[in-house]
């Protein structure tokens, strides 16, 4: 009983704040019909789930590594475009698989390069010139190889061959696959050699520039395994390019959607790991440089997307599991939905979109539980927490903390990429889609607690619910008591309402709802 009183007194403000929020939700339910409330509530959960996937990754990276990754929203956007490419243009994805795998392969040998660089005895001008010379030579090799490497791609300048046209045709059930690109002026063997040589030289030069590089005491097969796997994937993708493309094109859209999501997550994790190893790691104690670097990377990422996929917005088609229509739709039960694959289902008389309002929140819930179990109930989670508290002690136990932190950064970016892949069929794709979700994620983290993983989930749900209820009341209006005035919130009030709530909560709880004092 005494412990209960102490806990209640200690968290009184938190409980009162949560009580007020629940009361507001109940009051919102009284002002609309039950079916409208259900639809609005589920839409709020959907928006909150997408926000959570971005906020949780940001919270993991900042909470465990104290790195402010302002490029997180852009990585969410890139995940969406990668998923679209795999789903709509599998031929382009297969063509890109070989160069991407071979380019990344050299950077997986960080330990090997550090081992070699630590044993090279060069001083003075020669020690500074050779790494930069190697970097310049690698760029020349990669440019000459990639410029002639055949990749089947769209043309953003020609409407009939633009991403929007391919997306529209795929949404109508017609998948357009142009003729395969062929090697001209460059043999496949020479392309593989050039990509591997450029990747190895660039990775070695970057490690050599680190002063001093952190090198392992001895090399084992584990240091070479990732390089062997990626190189094998790249070579096999080149050899079996045509049959692999034909298999993906003929694949059921449900399975193809799953493949596209998995590829987007893996690509996000790979990109995140590469960012941490090459750019973030030297700046762990320089937080201002971290902010400047990630902000610059965000801008560069947006420009790359605009150059490759163009400026116009377009949609990623939903898989067949969520597009059924005709007799029997909308479904009235989950069994009927499973049988007919209806796009919508009736809940308390309200028509709910299965993909947007049911599937996405379920994925968010699964991710919440999975990552929580990873952090709290696994050996890796224990190593992560110990590494944050005392990295030198963990290193003394023979654990490579740097690799663990790289994995954490990759996991955080992978969650953002997952959010983008799920958002593409529901919200569409645009080069500024990362900006809005990043703003929502930061507000959610401020509300829930910047370094709290459960706080990221709670804050995201609150942000999603507030925005959707404000949008709904903008349609039906809010009756002002004792007057005949009906107030309808305008669109600018939707984001302003979440900012206003954030300010109030931070005034009452400076660390957020579930944040802890450092």
Output the keywords.
518 residues, mainly alpha, two-stranded antiparallel ribbon, two-stranded antiparallel sheet, 21 helices, 4 strands
Mean pLDDT: 84
- The number of helical elements comes to 21
Output the structural class. Answer: mainly alpha
Number of domains: 1
Strand line-up of the largest beta sheet: 1-2
Helix content: over 70%
The number of distinct β-strands equals 4
Low-confidence region ranges: none
Element string (H = helix, E = strand)? HHHHHHHHHHHHHHEEHHHHHHEEH
Choose one word for the global shape: globular
**Largest sheet, if any?**
2 strands, antiparallel
Radius of gyration (CA) equals 25 Å
Termini gap = 28 Å
- Oligomeric state of this protein: single chain
> Per DSSP, what share of the residues sits in E-state strands of 2 or more residues?
under 5%
In short:
It is built from 21 helices and 4 strands.
Structure report:
- It is a single chain.
- With 518 residues, the chain is mostly helical.
- It has one domain.
- A two-stranded antiparallel ribbon has the order 1-2. Strands 3-4 form a two-stranded antiparallel ribbon.
- Strand 1 and strand 2 form a beta hairpin.
- Helix 19 packs parallel to helix 21.
Write the layout of secondary structure elements.
Layout: H1 2-10, H2 12-30, H3 34-65, H4 72-88, H5 90-105, H6 110-117, H7 124-146, H8 163-171, H9 188-208, H10 221-239, H11 241-249, H12 253-280, H13 287-309, H14 334-340, E1 344-347, E2 350-353, H15 354-377, H16 379-389, H17 391-396, H18 401-427, H19 433-448, H20 453-476, E3 478-479, E4 486-487, H21 493-508
Antiparallel strand pairs: 1-2, 3-4
